[in-house]
Design brief:
Elements lengths: L4 H136 L4 H15 L1 H7 L7 E5 L5 H12 L8 E5 L7 E5 L2 E5 L2 H14 L8
Parallel strand pairs: 1-2
Antiparallel strand pairs: 1-3, 3-4
């Protein structure tokens, strides 16, 4: 088989033409497509990386906010607990103060009732005692109670240390004689005579009635005073009555 130059040249031309056509219409678009695809993939990778970074950022932000919420919740719970404890202590203090005040009021009320009771008891004892003493004196000594009180007082005035000191007073003014009952003229003269025996013959006397003396009598010269009454005996009886009725149970 003979290969002439024309045939070789034609085939060469055809080959070059084919290569140009392939380069023009196949390889170049294919390379461009491949390049475009690579750029697209690179863009997608970059987008994915950015998305990953954003997701990581979002995750960190979420974790941080979650931690802040947990911290805030813990702080709020602690604050609520402390506030509840303060409120409890406040209410407890108010309750104690109210209870103490109520107890004090009850104690004061009981004490007031107790004082009224013993006052009434003392009045009742006084009345009964006066009636009884008058009856005893009338039956046994045939003297009335007032005369006996004056006799006891005059004996105290002359024999007791307080009475002797009173009669020895150097400065004398108007002598005031107070009694829980009206004194007869004979009784007044008897009192004057006892005082005047100490040398005070020119002194003036004033006689007054003072029921608060509790069947008693007193003589006053300025600040000096001598007295006798049933108050001391009644006070002793009252103390015994308080002890009998358990007064200590009402003490506040």
């Amino acid at each position: 088989m003979l290969i002439d130059e024309f045939t070789i040249g034609a085939q060469l031309v055809n080959f070059l033409l084919l290569m140009w056509l392939l380069q023009r219409f196949l390889y170049k678009p294919l390379l461009a497509a491949i390049e475009q695809r690579e750029r697209s993939l690179a863009d997608n990778l970059r987008q994915a990386e950015l998305a990953k970074e954003e997701a990581e950022t979002e995750k960190n932000v979420f974790q941080m906010r979650t931690q802040e919420l947990l911290q805030r919740r813990s702080e709020q719970l602690q604050f609520a607990k402390e506030e509840a404890e303060r409120e409890y202590q406040r209410l407890l203090k108010m309750a104690r103060e109210h209870a103490d005040k109520q107890q004090q009021q009850w104690g004061q009320a009981l004490k007031a009732e107790e004082e009224v009771f013993y006052e009434r008891l003392q009045e009742a004892v006084q009345r009964e005692m006066l009636v009884l003493v008058k009856k005893i004196l009338a039956d046994l000594a045939e003297v009335n109670l007032e005369e006996q009180i004056v006799n006891v007082f005059l004996r105290r005035l002359q024999e007791s240390e307080a009475g002797k000191k009173f009669l020895q007073t150097e400065t004398w003014g108007p002598i005031v004689v107070r009694s829980a009952f009206s004194l007869t003229e004979a009784t007044r003269i008897k009192i004057k005579e006892v005082i005047q025996k100490s040398g005070k013959t020119e002194e003036s006397f004033v006689f007054e009635i003072q029921e608060e003396l509790l069947c008693g009598i007193e003589v006053v010269n300025g600040e000096a005073k001598v007295s006798w009454s049933m108050a001391s005996y009644l006070d002793a009886m009252q103390q015994q009555a308080k002890s009998f009725f358990g007064k200590e149970a009402y003490e506040v």
